Amino acid sequence: MSEILYSQKHIDFQKQVHKECPAYGSASLIFAPMVSELCNANSINTLLDYGSGLGEVPQNLELDHDMDVQLYDPAVEKFVDAPKAAEMVICLDVLDAVEKDCIDGVLDDIKRLTTKMAFISINTVQPESTSANDDAKAGRDFQPLEWWLPKLMERFELHYLSRVTTGFVAVVKAFKEPSVQ
Q1: What DSSP letter does each residue of 86-102 carry, written as one string?
Q2: Which of the chain's termini has less CB crowding within 10 Å, N or C?
Q3: Exposed, middle or buried: residue 65 (CB in 10 Å: 0-12, 13-18, 19+)?
């Protein structure tokens, strides 16, 4: 893959935030029940948490079957290994923190890794707990749904979309490859 997914400066900053703020990324735990429901309803056997932080979401899933889970986060030493494709990819509260010139590369990477579906949550408004200055330093860029939607739709089939207080969640499906006859 030739697209750049992140700069070293950005990863160094994210590592520092993980070190200084143990709760960093835990807001995404609110999505565990929805992810559980999707995994159970669609008999998902492999899951990739893309931008997993400390890996808390998969630990909080309530599943009715066994599932192989991978965690990937380039800012967390134990989760830096390149991920493998999975039936379902979750990317929770990550994309608004991706450097703007890397967003297309990251979305392409998520597309490449998704064999069935993805559950994506994106913040479009600045959380009350942070200042605009902190967010700028973290590389966070809160774009509206209308900015994100075309980017998602050129890579996936939109299955479900809902606005939430902090932004939106989308369930997208991998495009089916045309059958060769």
Answers
A1: EEEEEEES-GGGS-GGG
A2: C
A3: exposed
Cα separation, 155 vs 118, in Å, equals 11
The answer to which of 6-15, 58-67, 122-131 has the lowest mean pLDDT is 122-131
pTM of the predicted protein model: 0.88
Distance (Å, whole) CA 128 – CA 138? 15
Contacting residues for 158 by C-beta, under 8 A, at least 6 apart: 149, 152, 170, 172
Which tokens hold the place of 7? 């700069």
- CA geometry: angle 131, 16, 18, nearest 5 deg: 80
CATH of domain 8-173: 3.40.50.150
pLDDT digits (tens, 9 = 90+) for 140-163: 778 999 999 999 999 999 999 999
CA distance 162 to 170: 7
